[in-house]
Every structure is written in structure tokens, then in C-alpha cells.
Amino acid sequence: QKYWQFLPLGPSGVADCPYTSYSSIAGNPYLIDLDLLIEDGLLTAEEVSAPDWGGDPDNVDYAKLDESRHELLRLAADRCRKRDADKISLFTAENAGWLPDFALFMALKRHFDMLPWTEWPDEAIRSRRPEAIAQYRALLRDDVERFCCLQYLFFTQWDALKAYAGEKGVEFIGDMPIYVSLDSADVWAEPQWFLLDEFNSPVEISGCPPDYFNEDGQLWGNPLYRWDAIRADGYGWWIRRAEGAFRLCDVLRIDHFRGFESYWAVPFGEKTARNGVWRPGPGLDLIRVLTSWFYDKAFIAEDLGFMTPEVRKLQLDSGLPGMSVLQFAFDWRALGSYLPHALEENNVCYTGTHDNDTLRGWLDSADERELEFARAYLGLNDEEGLHWGVIRGGMSSKAVLFVAQMQDYLDLGSSARVNVPGVAEGNWRWRMRPDALSPALAEKLRSMTARYGRAPYVPPYPVEDDTDDADSGGADEAETA
Questions:
Q1: 477 an active-site residue?
Q2: pLDDT tens digits for range 376-419
Q3: Which residues of the chain register pLDDT less than 50?
Q4: pTM more than 0.85
Q5: How far apart are CA 145 and CA 221, in angstroms?
Q6: In terms of Cα–Cα distance, which of 88, 90, 75 is closest to 37?
Q7: What value, to the nearest 5°, has the Cα angle with vertex 213 and ends 209 and 214?
Q8: Order of all β-strands in the sheet with 401-403
Q9: Catalytic annotation present for 355
Q10: What are the beta bridge partners of residue 464?
Q11: Does residue 327 sit in helix, strand or coil?
């Protein structure tokens, strides 16, 4: 197992969604390891164990986190600021392109009761007038410094984790959403790159058109880009954003890649995505800038969704591997291209994504026609386990990389689903139990990965020689076998 893929790691905003983050570069304070803070002397075991973190080991309780974690992190940050002031100052200087604005943005949100920045009562700071910036930096200095310190703690821990994984031969696959949230430091600090009116309201917002899965389409609500201004600037904003993303990972998945060819633009104020229009994206121009600037890095094109010949041509011309999802492969409404035998080598095959049900949930609820075809195509059977049969199908494909959600390896049902698109609450909560992994599962993964040529074959156990030395080969032959 050579890669670990995860969702965006930024500080989550609305509904705790990682795709609506307050920053495209900052790290989420929820992911700071409190046990490591204890080891570092910034918290005590008693302080960490005192709060009520919720009673469900399978799901994050965000309400409990909001009650307790912020206060613990404030305590740790204040101690860290006294002890490591020079290190924090150096970290802030090294990240001057984004951190001061982000820290001030978060301090301002706290000051204005977490209102979106477009609703802050002081128009001067909404518009980032220099005198207002200076005034609030002085007024909110303590909070600004705390937010800088929290990012120092996050990246100190993450850098250590990434280095440890690298020593083990494991690379990280990160996720870069094509859009950023309107209520983010990105848009507040650099509104010139976004399609806003004179009142900082979006002119048009993001979404995707109606299809056979959703008759109203999907209304995402992100502000769209001023591609003409970004292009004239040499795509500097995108370069800085990708640079921040690559600090967290080794390979970068570009979310909604088809939006680089053309994107669905919906007039601001619409209640559904029905009345949008297609507008041309930056195309190969931006892709070439990113791949040449980060010539020693790898990208994955998330090319799912409404495909056209033009999108397909962009993906082929880019040279980036696309994506395929096995749960879609057997859908009688869109049959064909995702079947394992039809996958190209320059492709990453998934059992499902964060927007899909788990394999077990899908097997329990899919259309009978889909399941009948999947059973026949993959030879699914109860003895092997239906979910293992689907995983086997992905493993045996020609795709350069195969990825399965942890829930699918563990055969968890729909209660472990990460996200239900279009549902506002109850998402992004699943977590794996500490005792979920086992040597038996590791061995099953190892043997299957080797069987399909995705890892060198290594015998699971030492081969014992039961022959006499007089037999041909003896122990030497047994060792070779």
C-alpha cells in the first residue's frame, strides 16, 4: 500500500464540510493531535480528558468539539507563544503570503460573531482599507497571534507525519477543490480574482447542470473566477494555491477537472442550478502552467461528471490520469467506460468516492439490474465476500493506481458513509475505530495487491523445509520457492 488519499485538510466552514473551507492553504485545527500536545508539554492529560467529547466512537460530534477543543487549543497556543515565540515568528515570516491575512480573517470572524465577511458591520474592514487593517490588527492582536500559532502547531505535526510516511515509502494524495468558499480568507484578501459586484456579492455562482441523477442539478454556491484577470497575471494565484497544497501532499487530485474546459455558471440568487449556462474555462493553458511549474510533482484529474468530447480531449492532452468509479461501472444508464476491462492504464480506479455510499451500502441498495450485471461480470459470491469481489475487480484492472475507501476494506454499511450530496447535515462524521485494523486484513491486502502485480510478491510466512538433505535441492530449493 503505497498511497494514502484524504479529503481537503483546510479549516472547515459551513456544515463542517472540507470543501467549504475558510482557507485554501491553512490547516484544520481539529486535526491537531492533542496527545502530541501533551507529549510536547503544552497540555496535560487531565486537561485533555476532562471535556465530554461525545459518546459515539464511530462518528465525530462536532457540537462537542466546538464546546471544548477551541478552549484547549487556546490554552496550548498561549503556552506555545510564550515558549516558542521565535519559532512562531519565523514560521509566520516564511508563510507571509497567506498566514497574516488568514489569521486576521479568523480573528475578525470571532470578533463579529462568526458572521460571513460579506456581512461584517464595518464596511472599512470588509473593503480592506489600510487604516482599518492596521486598526484591527492592533485591536485583535492576541487572537491574530493565536491563529498564527495554531497553524504553526498544525504544520509542525503534519510535517513530522509526512516525513514518517515518506520513510515508510508511503506518499500522500491530497485534494484541491476547483473552487473556494465565498466566506474565506482567499476571497476577502484577494477579491480581484473573483467574479464579485461592487457590494462583494457574487455575480454568478458554481454548480453543475441537471442530469439523470438530479433533475435540479447541484447548486454549490462558490464564487466564480475572473479568468481573464487571472490569466493576465500569469496564473500566479493558482500557482501559490497549488504550492500550498503540495506542502500537505505528494500527489494532487484536481477536483472538478472538467470545469477547466467549461463550467456551469448560475446567476446569483437562483434556488436551483437549472438556469445556468456553460462558460469556457482556462483549458490547457492553466494545466500547462501548473504541470510545468510543479514539474517534479504528480496530479490526478478528477474528470467525473458530465463528460463531453472536449473534456475528454483536455484530459488526454494534459497527460494527467483520469478517474473511474466502480460503483458507476454497472449503472445501466451510463454503462461501459468504467468497467475494469475497459480502463486505460493512465487512470486511477476507485471503489467509490466521498460522495458515494460505501460498497456494502451500495450492494444492499443498488438497482437489481446493476447488481445482477456486477455479480455476473465480477463473479461475486458470498464465500469470498461481495465487497472483496468488487475490490478484486479494481485491483485486476490496468489502471495505474487502485484506491478503495477504508470503509470498503472494512465492509461497513451506509452508516459509515462520508457524504450524501445535497443533504446539509450529518456528513463528514465517520471515523475509524482504533481496533478496526488487524493482521488478518493486512495479510489479505498484501496478498491481493501482490497477486495482481501491484506489489512485489513476498511469501506471507517463512517456507519450512520438510525434505531430507538427500532430496534434490533440499533447503536451498525451499528457500528459493
A1: no
A2: 999 999 999 999 999 999 999 999 999 999 999 999 999 999 99
A3: 463, 466-481
A4: yes
A5: 31
A6: 75
A7: 50
A8: 322-325, 347-350, 401-403
A9: yes
A10: none
A11: helix
